């Protein structure tokens, strides 16, 4: 649905994006990750045609990015932009019409979304009289009201309490299931694990990771296992690394160098009662931190 080819952008002598290639399929949630200052916002701004790339191209549905695409994109920026003096209902109608909806259609959609997110009662309130989380809901509706094909969400859960964060999460999944492609930029790794089908990570202007969450986790496997034992003796092999653990049970991290997991398990049985045995597969958060460190040292 969205393709980014060899995209580069610098601010003066400072490169913000270097030769970035990405492909976002229809109906998926694509996590765009990276440490602060990596280049994510720059990429998002180029897709939204707020700034221009120095070189490379962006295509939406096989067409070079052009102003017509704006109506097909819903962008929730990190710095929210609502008109403080305007009333909620008026503001949503305004945004919907700005994105090309006819007045009658816009009205229907405002009714639909304000009811869906349970905020019909706020219609006549001014934005300046709302709490941060309440204003966030309005901004979310303003982003999705024109039913864009591509949604770009920058930290969509910030400012929400857990109940409302869950509500918004469910709405995002619902939109994806209806065929919307979603680019989700966030530093919250639990959201990435829960929501994203595919992720790409940018660090220091370069893409350092690209794949499905499962592919990336599998590639990061290190043949490392965690074994919990009720030890029968005080001795154990020197390559078993003892981990802090409570009570009588002893936890080890063991790197499997040659041999099979069954052989390791058999060996473990000779040292005591095996309570649990599982492979340690790094989480996306751990992979993120490792990659950020690795590229920092390059
Ligand atoms: N308008 C600008 N003028 C000059 N430099 C800029 C401008 N906007 C961004 N930069 C620089 O470009 C680089 C990438 O910034 P960008 O905002 O794209 O990062 P980011 O990944 O969105 O970071 P964050 O997670 O902190 O929002 C940084 O070095 C930043 O200082």
From TrEMBL:
Recorded GO MF terms: ATP binding; ATP hydrolysis activity
Designated name of the protein: ABC transporter ATP-binding protein
Domain ABC transporter: 2-229
Keyword presence, Zinc: no
A Pfam family: ABC_tran
Family statement drawn from the similarity comment of this UniProt entry: Belongs to the ABC transporter superfamily.
Cited InterPro entries: AAA+_ATPase, ABC_transporter-like_ATP-bd, ABC_transporter-like_CS, ABC_transporter_ATP-binding, DrrA1/2-like_C, P-loop_NTPase
Organism per entry: Anditalea andensis
Keyword terms of this UniProt record: ATP-binding, Nodulation, Nucleotide-binding, Transport
Lineage: Bacteria, Pseudomonadati, Bacteroidota, Cytophagia, Cytophagales
Tree of life domain: Bacteria
């Amino acid at each position: 649905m969205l393709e980014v080819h060899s995209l580069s952008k610098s601010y003066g002598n400072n490169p913000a994006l270097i030769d970035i290639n990405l492909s976002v399929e229809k109906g998926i949630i694509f996590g765009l990750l990276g440490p602060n200052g990596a280049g994510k916002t720059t990429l998002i701004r180029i897709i939204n045609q707020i700034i221009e790339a120095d070189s490379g191209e962006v295509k939406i549905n096989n067409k070079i990015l052009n102003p017509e695409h704006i109506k097909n994109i819903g962008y929730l920026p990190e710095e929210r932009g609502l008109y403080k003096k305007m009333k909620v209902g008026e503001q949503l109608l305004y945004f919907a019409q700005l994105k090309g909806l006819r007045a009658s259609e816009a009205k229907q959609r405002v009714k639909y979304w304000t009811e869906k997110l349970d905020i019909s009662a706020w219609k006549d309130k001014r934005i300046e009289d709302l709490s941060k989380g309440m204003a966030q809901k309005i901004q979310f509706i303003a982003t999705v009201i024109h039913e864009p094909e591509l949604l770009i969400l920058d930290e969509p859960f910030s400012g929400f309490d857990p109940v409302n964060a869950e509500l918004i999460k469910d709405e995002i999944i619902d939109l994806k299931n209806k065929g919307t492609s979603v680019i989700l930029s966030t530093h919250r790794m639990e959201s990435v694990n829960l929501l994203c089908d595919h992720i790409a990570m940018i660090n220091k202007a370069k893409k350092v990771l690209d794949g499905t969450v499962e592919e990336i986790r599998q590639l990061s496997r290190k043949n490392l296992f965690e074994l919990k034992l009720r030890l029968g003796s005080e001795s154990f092999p020197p390559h078993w690394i003892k981990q802090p653990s409570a009570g009588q049970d002893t936890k080890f991290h063991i790197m499997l160098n040659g041999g099979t997991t069954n052989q390791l398990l058999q060996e473990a049985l000779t040292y005591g009662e095996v309570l649990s045995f599982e492979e340690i597969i790094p989480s996306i958060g751990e992979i993120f931190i490792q990659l950020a460190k690795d590229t920092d040292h390059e």
